[in-house]
Amino acid sequence: MMNLLDNRNITCVEYYLLNKLNPIIDIRKLYYKSYVSAYKIYLDLLDNDTTFYSYEGIERIQNILIENKMLTYKVTNDYKEEDFKNKTLVNLLLVNKNFFNNKKKVTFRNDHYIHVTKKNNRLMMISSYPMSIEEIDINTLNTFFDNKCLVYKILKKDNLTFKKVKEEFIKQLNKQIFVNLPEIYDLNKLQSLIQLLKITRLRLYDLCDYLIVSDSLLNPINEASRYYENVFLKISMMIIKNKLDSTILKEIIFKINRYEYEIYKKLKEEFVDE
After folding, report:
1. pLDDT tens across 1-48, in order?
2. What is the DSSP string of 193-228?
3. What's residue 2's pLDDT?
4. 130 cis-preceded (ω within 30 degrees of 0)
5. What is the pTM for the complete model shown?
6. CA 234, 237, 238: angle at the middle one, nearest 5?
7. What is residue 104's predicted lDDT score, i.e. its pLDDT?
């Protein structure tokens, strides 16, 4: 089985929730609305002039949980230190620019949250980017805190049955149509597209694995995911070097269309034409 956590989140909030829930429920079933066609993602990126970091075309994991009455949340201007001990709560604190001082990497989004928890009287801070888990004192935390806290409460009841997940996924699948991607020469748009494909196809693999499909479907999803991982690095290097290679770009689009058509066709065979 693939790693269930790496490269499964679009936002930091999703990262913290998936990590928290992984020991509690089968997180693979939370992805039933994550499959969107490559062409739809491309149009969204084009029409909304958006990037991966601000893309909203994939249903957020927290929304899936809230819809199914498995999660509630509130927004506050301050945190309660006693809440950090509560195992049913996920306390996410918005951080300011002080947090990134002396860090080699910074987020592309303006709103970055950290997960703060308390274990054995030790205050711990978890950050999704750059990934870190470290002990922190209250005074230092206060220098980072930007006066906004998301407090998610995990409800004990798991309302997502196998039957419901499968039905909801088929509804999502029936909304998708396959259209070939055109040639894309905007490297930043292509990078965002590939990043979103990488994440959503890893989620699709997990979901299909949960729904017990045949290897003839799992294998091409796995192969596509690996390809998107590799080609993401190629595009990133083109951006860094500011060097566009049209021959390589044409080959990338050709392969994306080939992978995506095969996945779409096999999904239809497995779930719609059964």
Report:
1. 445 788 999 999 999 999 999 999 999 999 999 999 999 999 999 987
2. HHHHHHHHHHHHHHHHHHTT--HHHHHHHHHHHHHH
3. 47
4. yes
5. 0.93
6. 90
7. 64
167 φ/ψ angles, rounded to the nearest 5 degrees: -60, -45
State the first-to-last Cα distance of the chain, in angstroms, to the nearest integer.
25
Q: Are 60 and 200 in contact (CB under 8 A)?
A: no
pLDDT digits (tens, 9 = 90+) for 216-249: 999 999 999 999 999 999 999 999 999 999 999 9
d(CA 105, CA 50): 21
Residue carrying the six token digits 């990338």? 252
Supply 251's token pair.
């080959």
CA 188 to chain centre: 19
Query: What is the spatial distance between Cα 17 and Cα 12, in angstroms, rounded to a whole number?
Result: 9
Cα 178 to chain centroid, rounded: 22
Residue 210's φ and ψ, nearest 5 degrees, are: -65, -40
- Percent of the chain residues topping a pLDDT of 90: 85
1's CB contacts (< 8 A; 6+ apart) are 209
Integer CA distances (angstroms), 75 to 12, 36, 197, 201, in order = 16, 30, 31, 31
Q: For strands 71-76 and 145-154, give the pairing.
A: antiparallel
